[in-house]
Amino acid sequence: MKPWIQNVSFADIQKGRHIDAGYNSMLIQIVDPGMEHPTPMYHFREVYQFQFLDLEHSDDSINDAWKISDEQAAELVALLKRAEDQHMNVIVHCVAGVCRSGAVCEVGVMMGFRDTEAFRSPNLLVKHKMMKCLGWLYDEQEPHTINGDPIPEDWSNDNEKVFMLAAARRERRQREGD
Predict the structure, then answer these.
(1) Whole-model pTM above 0.85?
(2) CATH number of this structure's domain 4-176
């Protein structure tokens, strides 16, 4: 059976609110620069840590070093390939558990991981840089999506987006009884 991949939030890792990944598992942690990585409630065979902001192609930044780098994208791809080769389940977290981790998971699903159908709205800069590392083509005009459904108007990456996505995730959890 193919391994699966799931995106979750910072708090989900601390509280263990995710699928039981088992012993043969990998945790990929993504936080903002300067943040400490959370201590997971459960043990993972391998843990990898990254720091970059949830910034898109078009986002102006005081420091472009805060965006995902080509090297980080290549390392994420290499980790997913390793996990797939080792039949490891993968959990990826970022702060809200929606955009950066959602992008890594969406690429993982495209690589062949089973989709846990977690709530996500992939950061397109992260997704496209990873696809480029894989030698895949992508649409530079790709619209932002929530679980694959296009968002009517393209968002700039701001706090309103993060809070709206987090609220939508909470509502989905309430509906699903989680």
Answers:
(1) yes
(2) 3.90.190
